[in-house]
Amino acid sequence: MKKILGLALTASLSLSLAACSGNTNNSSSPAPSDTTTPVATTETPETPETRTLKLAALETAYGADVWKEIIAGFEKANPGVKVESTIDKSIEDVIGPAMKSGDFPDVIHLAVGQPKGLTETFVKDNNLTDLTDVLSMTIPGESGTVKDKIIPGFTDTTITNPYGDGKTYLMPMFYSPTGLFYNAGLLEQKGWTVPTTWDEMWALGDKAKADGIALFSYPTTGYFDSFFYALLNEVGGPEFFTKAMHYTEGVWQSPEATQAFDIINKLAAYTEKTVPANGNKDNFTKNQQLILDNKAIFMPNGTWVVGEMSKAPRAEGFKWGFTALPAVKEGGDRFSYTFFEQIWVPAKAKNADLAKQFIAYLYSDEAAGVFAKVGAVQPIKDMASKLEGDNKLFYSIYDNGAKAAMGAFSTTDPVEGVSISDTVFGTVDSLVTKAKTQAQWVEAITKASDALRGALK
């Protein structure tokens, strides 16, 4: 899990917020896993006293069992309600056929940035239920509202409010700060310090190269979503980032964009050369293993990577380290993109009101505690102070000077043959292999951006 996961921060938290589960996806979403059999409750016949809620959720690194506990809590608090759940690592494939015949889940937990782009399709087709009123709902068993509970900013992003009309259609769920993960033990052994600027990063790369260690790795090119979003904030600030996300004419020829492109292209030259070959859903963990084996120093990722690699072998003295992107200049702002997952209700859901009650329950202390036990952290006030171990390190990044970035490329009507994610992030493999030049990359991004500008929602 690809991937404040503005994370999504894009996105995003996840949270890298894998985020959360592996993003990368990534995007910035949890990394893909092998398909498993759907986990479903036994279907219960409807009676006048029984209401049934159909839940579909992506199984990420947090597992499927956590949803069973959440469902049990919701059913206990709502006598007469039964939840039928389908939890699967390939949820888009599982629920797709039934939806084509008109049978929609009432609530779907599936973030943007997944390979099949199901959530994006619902957004583009205006097939979402407006969830703005959920924010004013009182959380079951508590006195406050959902809006009071959520950390400010999470419902003001281009992801949660995709149409720019002030309405929320996707509710933020688990978030994960994303940034650069590394082996803190290796740096201690070598006497190296964590770079705070890109100039310091290149200097470290040269030192590492002399020791036969690459500076950089990445699971898949999808993980460059959170990296790129944070970098755009660093080179130009939030206002520039917003222009880029809305395909503003000329934005990719600006000095700020050029600086970002230069950094990524230079980073490609410091990347372990085996990475592109393994940057796929079957072998992405090999790229993550490079960090554990001291064959590369940094990789972009989300907090979910710790769970993904928990059973993997590692170098002696290994311990996780985590940092925001280096600043573009001494004293400049450093950003950590927050990837966050989303939960939403299809426009054709039969039980939208019950779905909204279920979503409101997910922000309760009771539900948040259940999720937190498996490392799924929600954007709820004061949650970070309750964490321990590695998570306390990761979620304290914003307490240590890093700024949070959130948001993603704006939603557009479909444009045949154009995928801004594939064009921007997917090309990084070609930069590493030198199959494409920086100029070709920028030209393709500009062309895609021009095509999408007129199709903005």
How are the SSEs placed, and which strands pair?
Elements: E1 51-58, H1 65-77, E2 81-88, H2 91-100, E3 107-109, H3 118-124, H4 146-149, E4 170-183, H5 184-190, H6 198-210, E5 214-216, H7 224-245, H8 255-269, H9 275-278, H10 284-292, E6 296-302, H11 305-308, E7 320-323, E8 335-344, H12 352-361, H13 365-372, H14 389-395, E9 403-405, H15 420-424, H16 428-433, H17 438-453
Parallel strand pairs: 1-2, 1-3, 5-6, 8-9
Antiparallel strand pairs: 3-8, 4-6, 4-7, 4-8
Helix pairs in contact: 1-13, 7-8
Supply database-style keywords.
457 residues, alpha/beta, D-Maltodextrin-Binding Protein, domain 2, 2 domains, nine-stranded mixed β-sheet, 17 helices, 9 strands, disordered N terminus
Report on the architecture of this protein.
- With 457 residues, this protein is α/β, with parallel strands linked by helices.
- The protein has 2 domains: 51-176 and 338-405, D-Maltodextrin-Binding Protein, domain 2 (3-Layer(aba) Sandwich); 179-334, 3-Layer(aba) Sandwich (D-Maltodextrin-Binding Protein, domain 2), CATH 3.40.190.10.
- The protein has helices at residues 65-77, 91-100, 118-124, 146-149, 184-190, 198-210, 224-245, 255-269, 275-278, 284-292, 305-308, 352-361, 365-372, 389-395, 420-424, 428-433, 438-453, and strands at 51-58, 81-88, 107-109, 170-183, 214-216, 296-302, 320-323, 335-344, 403-405.
- Strands 1, 2, 3, 4, 5, 6, 7, 8 and 9 form a 9-stranded mixed beta sheet that branches.
- The longest helix has 22 residues, at 224-245.
- The two termini are 28 Å apart.
- Residues 1-44 have low confidence and may be disordered.
